[in-house]
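COURSE: Structural Biology Practicum
ASSIGNMENT: Worksheet 4, Part C
STUDENT ID: 0417
INSTRUCTIONS: Below are two proteins. For each, the amino acid sequence is given first, followed by its structure token string. Answer the questions at the end about the second protein only.

PROTEIN I
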Amino acid sequence: MNNILHVENEKYEMNSLSQANIEEIQSLCDSCNDYFLISQGCKTIGNEALDILTSLPPHNDMNDKDVIGIYNTQKKLIGLVDLVKNYPNEGVWIIGLMLIDPKERRKKIGQEMDKIIKTHVLSQSGKAIQLGVLRENKTGRAFWGKLGYLKVGETKSEIKGSQHEIDLMRFDIKTSEI
């Protein structure tokens, strides 16, 4: 995956994240309390970074997972994307989470990251990208819809004791759409 993200006149660096980055991941989570208030019903509690690094869907292992950090020119982690390949089927990748620091939102970082993800998934013979968006997260649903993801189903899930309705969204990859 290309490790430089160009957005307008800014340049961001992308790197795989690991347990060595846990403090900066948690700091990013703390900055994104708006998301965690929706997803877990309270502000961050300190274990979100570890959850991001280790959570996997059934039948996948850590070799299927990559958490990619997005760094600004000051080397501060300002975003991340959690990707898992071959779930729920072979050739389908999921975005488990995309977080962008609120101060960095509306700068097209998420849009450009999505393009890089689509190109990467295609280069790995992936056929589609799927994700779940909390129904309460209207901004998130609008964002993914604008990028061409279509609602393909619904499910319910419990996150940190809070029940949520989740819209399943999918982007079927075709080279002409990237």
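PROTEIN II
(use this one for the questions)
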Amino acid sequence: MTFSINSLIPKAILGLFDADLNTVKPFTLEASGSARPKFEWDRYIPFVSMHAGCLLALWGGVSWSAVFLAVALYWIRMFAITGFYHRYFSHRTFQTSRVMQFLFAILGLTSLQRGPLWWASHHRFHHQHVDTEKDLHSPRHFGFWWSHMGWMTVSTNLSTDYQRVPDFLKFPELVFLNRFDWVVPLLYFVALYGLGELLALWMPELKTNGVQFLAWGGFISTVALLHATLTINSLSHVYGSQRYKTGDDSRNNWFLAILTMGEGWHNNHHRYPGSVRQGFFWQEWDPTYYILWLMNKLGLVWDLHPVPVSLLKEGQLQAYKPEGRLGQKLQKPLTSPHPQIALSSF
């Protein structure tokens, strides 16, 4: 009699090491018959562990170098998410080289937001069905917690729908990174610990160590980055203003734009996802676009897709006021359907 490792280890455990083993169809309200999704508490273990890892700061202590590292890695990796996971892999708002997309896929993986193709496939699905019964993370249907993090913790949302990202399947290195999305984070955490230990040995005046760098550069910075990113799924569909009448709950929120390097101009983005800019006007802070503009001048990226002039004029005419006070959640669902976006638009 022969045994395979697949028969000895639960699929849920194997799925942590091989993302392509997660083949369950995504949860949708429509498919469930309007039943509330069931939270799978064992899926919270990685998230709870990541938050608990912040407590390592109690053992490793704190130093200015560790705090600087945490802040720097927050912004660097935020750009990898906003500039490449979102505006490149999800929406193809600019073009770049195979080397650059590979490097920023690696950098994005250090944020522990899974692989670039998983991220892009889910985000494209969101734009096709935003705030409808098919949307995977709409606060309209199941509230803040589900839209913020709960949707990521159920097995039905762990698989990558490769049919939604056919434009990247020709790059085996991206498929590999997406499939084994734990490899880069593991190396990242090991490198942080090693760097801290080396600095403790070579530059003791910095008063740092491996555990300290692991706590601040690894766990604290990553947890802050994760929650800031997820506010675009949750808070930016509840709080803020609407310049454009998009038929969904997307909002422009200046505070979230600061936290996420310009992603907070979410109503702008839902009006025209194909633009490399999300801050459509000069007063809308969008450092992700500023960096991409600079990279374009350096020849690292090209073909930046602009905001159509007609949309700028539309936005200048009159800002759309959603039902109720600005910053207050809509009490009634919007009646106008969101326009369905074809995959070809990405």
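ANSWER KEY EXCERPT:
Q1: The chain is about 50% helix and 0% strand.
Q2: The chain has a mean pLDDT of 85.
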